[in-house]
Amino acid sequence: MDEQHKSGGNRKQEQLEQFRVNDEGQKMTTNQGLRVSEDEFSLKAGERGPTLMEDFHFREKMTHFDHERIPERVVHARGFAAHGEFELYTSMKPYTKAKFLQEPGTVTPVFVRFSTVAGSRGSAETVRDARGFATKFYTEEGNYDLVGNNIPVFFIQDAIKFPDLIHALKPEPHHEMPQAATAHDTFWDFVANNQESAHMIMWAMSDRAIPRSFRMMEGFGVNTFRFVNEQGKAHFVKFHWKPVLGTHSLVWDEAQKIAGKDPDFHRRDLWESIEQGNYPEYELGVQLLPEEDEFKFDFDILDATKLWPEEDIPVQLIGKMTLNRNVDNVFAETEQVAFHPGHVVPGIDFTNDPLLQGRLFSYTDTQLIRLGGPNFHELPINRPVCPFHNNQRDGYGRQTINVGQVSYHNNSLAGNTPSPAAEAEGGYVHYQEKVEGRKIRARSESFKDHFSQATLFWNSMSLAEKQHIIDAFSFELGKVKSKSVRQQVVDMFGNVSLKLAVPVAEAIGVIPPSGAGSQSSKSSPALSQENTVKSPRTRKAGVIVGTGFDGAEAKSVLNALIAEGVQAEFISDKLGVLHGSENTECEVVHTFLTADSVLFDAVYALGGELASADSDRKAAFFIQEAYSHYKPIGAAAGGMKWLEPQMVNSPGVVTGVSGSNFAASFIEAIAAHRHWDRA
């Protein structure tokens, strides 16, 4: 990789440097630069008198505080972000003229924001929900935003229904409940009466809606876009982000408990992983389809409630994104970043996907109200790394100081500049698609199949995943008060599979649907998380330990775990240093009060003596809870006392002593993530 490409990843960081301020060691000033002599007391008429209006420092400080908050996003309000870079593996020149996709080795700085959809900024992060996966590429041709989700399809086909969807899934307006949850009447009433949502609901009720971490979560562009090459030849394209660590999830009971134990669980995981150098990595994949193949499938490729099965249209991996730097300030960067699917570069264009067409309006409109006007592009996190020149002027928050007397086109006083760039000079030219037809409010007949891909998803799940979907429907609909709505939903999903609808009906007290149900047996192995990458890297193991632990075994096992990238953290009844045999010691960083099994991927019962019988009970419960969530359990000879008899020889439970293959077996169990056959 040449130096020009290497430096690409640093351009945004260098640009942001001029906006960073470190206040440490500095004298306090007002926003005008005046040094402040006192910041504890307001200016008063006598020590016990009223505060004076002339106290400009108090007024500036308080006014700024009163205006610190901006409107949160209507959706995707709860988010967290990081900086990184994207490196291209394979030239996409045959398909697109986008410069950052031309030469292998090209490095482009990126900023990525992950988010939940439904909840407010203060909601928990492990709720059942779709997750936003928005990426801003700072390219030399301008900013390109790939604004997607961790689910490849969406609830609706036409953007005009988006306000209805969000009104239905948000807390019900008469009592503002529930927060960050779809388990209520209005959401499921919307689903039952807008059956195009069937496919998305299958994903939302699956394990995909409760990811283990942002680092182990797929991303999708959702909509169908176009690649256009130098010759003007176009291909339809779908975008995918494939996490290098594989796609993994929580279990529902675990997700609920984490929401109480650590509502910041996902952002904490992302932050700590980057600080520790365990940089999240995602490979960018594309599905490409020649325009002449648009109508060769049993679904409409422009329908956002449909995916392109990977077995029919393979995903080509073309590059890797690495998130390697945390933000300096969450508000200035994460909250003020403005994404928009209309932020494109030459070589990337749109299609007639009616959901995408509406998004192209909505996103700019949103930024205008959130960020106070049309100059949101001048905020440091949103500024492109290339220069920008136009005749736009003034407005709230303007930072650019434009010089000269001319701010219009056409003109002679400035030689008619800034002037449009020809296509050969990098000017963006829209793809020339022939469009004709009568003005009509209607939907194509090809959009009317709402159940075949929902059935495809169901057929593709493992037995454990299918049971989780049944349980999720049963929980969500069990919270719905209207029996009519519950019945409508069950009848609707009878069109997907009776093996899904019947047990749900029995669980929620409605009449099971009758009829044959879907007879389709088509499946797509790529949709099941059982077929994902399985690795022990960056997994977090809680090590339960007491005084006098076996030092030799601790060294052997822990060194093996660390060598495979597993993070081990010690848990006991008190913080501090504990001593084991052979002059060993360990630093306890969690107690049974401050840590819980739901915050770890695995548990290793090392052994030793705890302070009391109550502590032993807490250790046993810690392990029992992890076991009930199908997590790997390792027990050294000294830790066997905390295991219940039925755990021994159970799948994913590894026991042993020094000199055995205990460590290797435990690492293998950790890599598997869950052991569903334990039940």
From TrEMBL:
Annotated TM spans: none
Keyword Cell inner membrane tagged: no
Domain Catalase core, first and last residues per copy: 29-417
Entries under SMART domains matching the protein: Catalase
Compositionally biased tracts (Low complexity): 514-529
Domain of life: Bacteria
Residues covered by region (Disordered): 1-32, 514-535
Cofactor annotation: heme
Family classification: Belongs to the catalase family. HPII subfamily.
Name the UniProt record assigns to this protein: Catalase
Source organism of this protein record: Paenibacillus woosongensis
Origin organism lineage: Bacteria, Bacillati, Bacillota, Bacilli, Bacillales
